[in-house]
Amino acid sequence: MDNLYNRKPIADGVYFTSVTDEKFKINRISVIFITKLSEKASENAVLPRMLSKCSEDLNTMAKLNRRLAELYSANISWSVRADADYQFCELSASVLDSRFALDGEDILRETAKILIGCLFRPYFENGLFPAQSLEIEKQNQIDDNDAEINDKTNYSYLKAYEEAFRGEPAEVRWGGTNDRVEAITAETALNAYKRMINEMRTEVICVGESDFAGISDMFAEAFSKTDRRPEELPETKVSCTKPEVSRIEETLDIEQSKLVMFFKTSDRYRKKYPLMVMQHLYGGTESSKLFSIVREKMSLCYYCYSRLGFAKGFVTTECGVDRKNLEAAESECLHQLDEIVNGNFTDDETEKVKLYIINIIRAVSDTVGGITSRCLSNILFPEYAEPPEEIIERINAVTREDIMEAAASLKLDTVYVLSTDKEAGEE
Amino acid sequence: MKKEILESSRLGEHYTRIKHDSGLTICLYPMKGFSTAFAIFGTRYGSVDTTFRTNEDEDLITVPEGIAHYLEHKLFEGEECNAFENFSKTGAYSNAYTSFDTTAYHFTCAEHFGENLRTLLDFVQNPYFTDENVQKEQGIIAQEIKIYLDDPGWRVFFNGLGAVYHNNPVRIDIAGTVESIAQINKELLYRCYNTFYNLNNMTLSIAGNFDPDEAMSICDEMLKPSRDLGLETVVPEEPEKVREKRVTQKLYCALPLFQLGFKMPNLSGRESAKSYLVHNIMLDSALGTFSPFYTRNYDSGLINDTFSAGVFRGRGFFLPLISGDSREPDKVAEEVIKELERLKKDGIPRADFDTVKKMTYGDLISGFNNVGGVAKSVMNSDFIGISVYDNLELAASVTYEDVMEALRSLDTDNSSLSVIEPLDR
Questions:
Q1: Per-residue burial over A359-380, b = 16 or more CB atoms within 10 Å of its CB, e = otherwise
Q2: Which residue of B100, B154, B401, B419 has the smallest Cβ count within 10 Å?
Q3: Residue in B89, B362, B368 nearest the CB of A72
Q4: How confident is the model at residue A426 (pLDDT cuts 50, 70, 90)?
Q5: What letter would DSSP give residue A236?
């Protein structure tokens, strides 16, 4: 993998990766801190928010944002996400390539300096994050946690996800819990910051038109001043299927009911590519079983798809239907999976799905975000870090029997229903 | 056939715009180094086009709300198979969308570009509607409508448009309502198709990794010449003042959502392009992330990262909008208006204006970073009668006086506030 993307260590547990592609007009530097999801998730989640607002050098939000605007709308953004058993805390900078600067400024280097300032020289008052800013960002985090309900489709997925992985690190939300956010103090925030900078596994990934000469040295120097004692990053564990399917039903006063089913496999590594082809055949494209039967033929829903969570070894089924059609939708989604288990699909369908996946693999190199994600995925799963052409060969090598076996390995674990409390027929 | 090369010295790029003998405008924008091609075939037809006539009609025709979107769904259906099936034979990703003033069909592929372009040109030019397949779609679209009825972000937007406009059809949901789509039948769909899917009303835009000669040869072979029917769409007379000052609805959400809209006279086509840039520069200078307004209200907790200010525009509408989440949406509206009125008197600091102009330049250049974005921007620019590069030049030509004039002409009293309040769980 290290040779694939020019990845090199720049400090203990810190790696620098760069991908230069002259077709892009922007450059992006992503600094990603990776840790196991735990009760510390809430504290970790608030940090990137705080760090993206100002630094010792640019000590108010107005000064930081003005300086970024002067650099042709450079941007420093934060993101925190949970995937499998990990929490990813990211601060990234996107900036126009310096060749477009009207006065010959080196805007990439200037933006990198600002990013490094935000990360390594946060604005402190008396050695701590300012109390008022911390309270604002704590409240924003609580509001974001609560805002899960705004998008009912994603809310349903997250509720099902939580139930499917109950008792495992993966059940922890990206933003933790509101009570733990509320409990954060200036002292615990500082400790969390030190833990992030000193202990979390860190990947710096640069993608864009630049050769990023000098950027690696800037980060190496910044990390050399820290007290790195990297924590071990445990491997994500495969999740065991529950002995009995867990069914949860929640009722709200909404227009459309939602159905989410989680299936798990305990054999994800051996079946990665068969699982990928199978999931697309089942519900990953506009010619999939779920789309063509449940939506197009039965007209039950507008969206009906599946997604694959490779790291935890799961496949979902998700759809939005009238309450009176919930049973019919569930039954048909299960039936369509059985159809694949029983080999009721054509070679033509399989070939189409393979071509679709290959198209996606090739398209990854056309966006800065796509390349960044591919780098990170290869870093986390080095056993699958192969050049795209070799992955395509593996996709093409998947047989009908592999697909049937992958489908048969899926066991239903969790069913979540968000239903409207309106009487059936009123919807 | 008329062909012109459009160039940008700032970007060091060019593309070709062709008025094809069939009536279609074709824009070809090859992009070096990319693996994929993105092709989009669009028509100037959206949800606002509910009343129209051609030179073959005596009277104006009014059709049910949501029909442009319904037609988009149905066009994928063919006599033998649907277009998704054909795209899937090559692994291409295909989709379509309907907006207020545009319907567009697109695909992206890394291989088999020619086959996919044939599929695109074929299905968009060959509708196949039957009573049965039209009826079947009602259940699917009804479910799509219901998703948005539960979506507070969608509702705050449309409730806001409904509060600003009395008659302009932009106030109606793009997909229509469960009741309005029940009136749609195959005859109406064919009527709308034959009116708006005339090649003189359409643009094909292709960007990325493809061979322009191959694309033109396929177009020459497959495009069916269209006679210009002199299409006329009617935007109903719209009173100057907003319809309602404040509207509210309760839905499940964390914080109240708000949208403040300032009603302005409609601007369309080329004249809207510069005005769009001027108004956005004005809003960014006054309320953007480094403005005193933004930092003061962020630091007090009144607004958060969701706060945004920008112009919503299209054929027949032009509306500066301020939106976001806040515990006190009415106070946000009050503060926004107070700040805009203050700046009318004190003037926007010139340094802020200069900085926002630099930002705008950066944002516009960044827009040329991926094939899908370029193909869509080229088509949308063509629909308003400009080149995709004109925005760069127009932005450079915006003066401080333009921005102050835009600010002074904004009638802050003629505004509507839409609020979604959280429903108790």
A1: bbbbbbbbbbebbbebbbebbb
A2: B401
A3: B362
A4: very low
A5: P
Q: How far apart are CA B38 and CA A118, in angstroms?
A: 38
- Say which of B34, B82, B139 has its CB closest to residue A366: B34
For the domain with range B246-422, which CATH number is right: 3.90.420.10, 3.90.1700.10, 3.30.830.10, 3.20.20.80? 3.30.830.10
pLDDT at B281 over 50: yes
**Residues B166-201: pLDDT tens digits?**
999 999 999 999 999 999 999 999 999 999 999 999
Give me the mean pLDDT over the A347-360 stretch.
96
Residues of B in contact with A69 (CB under 8 A): 288-290, 355-356, 358-359
List pLDDT tens digits, range B308-333: 999 999 999 999 999 999 999 999 99
Report ipTM for this prediction: 0.94
* pTM for the predicted model, two decimal places: 0.95
**Interval B11-21: pLDDT, tens:** 999 999 999 99
Looking at residue B80, what is its pLDDT?
80
Q: Is A241 among the domain residues?
A: no
Q: Which residues pair with B40 in a beta bridge?
A: B106, B205
Distance CA B301, CA A60 (A): 15
List the single residue in B with minimal CA-CA distance to A141: B304
Active site includes B72? Answer: yes
Q: Which of A24, A255, A291 lies nearest to residue B146, judging by beta carbons?
A: A255
CB contact under 8 A, A363 and B35: yes
Q: A153 with A294, same domain? A: no
A264 and A352 together in one domain: yes
Question: Is the pLDDT at A179 greater than 70, yes or no?
Answer: yes
Kindly list the residues from chain B whose CB atom is less than 8 angstroms away from the CB atom of residue A363. 35-36, 108, 110
For residue A243, list its beta bridge partners: none
Residue A294 is classified by DSSP as I
Last residue of a domain, one of A155, A189, A224: A224
Both tokens of A157, joined, read: 């997925």
Q: Is the residue at A232 inside a domain?
A: no
**A46 and A180 assigned to the same domain:** yes
Q: What is the DSSP string of B114-156?
A: HHHHHHHHHHHH-----HHHHHHHHHHHHHHHHHHHT-HHHHH
Is there a single domain that holds both residue A413 and residue A300?
yes
Pick the CATH number of B2-233 from 1.10.150.130, 1.10.1040.10, 1.10.10.10, 3.30.830.10: 3.30.830.10
> What is the domain range of residue A365?
246-420
Per-residue pLDDT, A4 = 60
pLDDT at A417 over 80: yes
B278 touches B339 (CB < 8 A): no
Give chain B's count of helices (H) and strands (E): 15, 15
Per the CB < 8 A criterion, the answer to whether A77 and A50 are in contact is no
- What are residue B246's DSSP bridge partners? B417
Chain A partners within 8 Å of B144 (Cβ): 302
User: Are residues A263 and A131 located together in one domain of the fold?
Assistant: no
Which of B100, B158, B176 is closest to B321 using CA atoms? Answer: B158
Distances (CA, A) of B42 to A83, A251, A388, B49, B95: 38, 41, 33, 15, 12
